[in-house]
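Run RanBP2-type domain-containing protein through structure prediction, thanks.
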Amino acid sequence: MGLGGGSEVACRVPAAVVGLAPPRKMDFLRRAFAETRLRYHVSKVIFAESASTGKLSRECLSLVEEHPLVVLSVLREHLHTGSPHAYAYLHLLEKIVDACSFSFHAAMSADHALHEKLVKLAVARAEGGERRKVRRLARLTLLEYSRMFVDVPELQSLAKLAGLVEKVTGKSLMRALAVESKKVAFVDPRPEDIILISPVEVPVKAVPSPQRTSTAWSCHICTYVNRPQATTCVVCRTPKTTRAASPPVHKSKAGNSVSAAEILSGTVCHEKSSAGATTPRAPTGEGARVPSPIRSGKGNEAKGETLAKRGAPAAENQA
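Sure, done. The structure for RanBP2-type domain-containing protein is below.
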């Protein structure tokens, strides 16, 4: 506010205009005003075309052919993930590319800022239905560019955008589009799918575990493996019992004590006295008999012949 109560408006003149002559200043201002008016007009036409679902108007096509850089600048401002009109402007860009001439394609190929915008839309994390639509359309657009401009040397920068997206994401663009097209449907529950649960807690009875089938057992005296149905050892006639934690010390008929270690190791299987030795029994149906070694001594030759005679019929039956 001035001292007299009037208002003072400060106009800031660009630095490039300060040193110019009056005619040059007027030319610069005219050009700046013309560019601003043209940009406003292009923005108005582009916004109207983005809301339209039909073909492009003649006015829009003429602006695209005459001022491709201005049109690309207006489109580029709305091609980001936070814009609510990103899908509409991206769809409009696709229609312009299909309808325009090579001059607009060349301008797109040189616009690296537009390339960066398109790649960001294609690799952005989509949260929500609208953003997923924008990302899918951006991927389809870049995939179409890779097919349209692959044979044009001047437009290779547009054809390589799809490969750049695959390099950033590490996934095939075709496969990513195929996965996005799949949908999951939720089906209403059927009557047979409903399981009624009682509000009263009922204890579940323990299901009796099936008894384990009996297996062959080993004798704790002579370590012979007997059949499951055998109740006594076939060799030493020891009853089937569980081995004690500390086996007792056995005594021979002569009164000499025999340690359990000697019995388990097989050192002492019979009495030392040949007179008290029991005659080996013939094999029975409960298990095969393991012949005991014949010790040298008086009367053992006859016992050897007896064992051979008794073992012969069993061998014939087994054969």
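The first strand starts at residue 217 and ends at 218.
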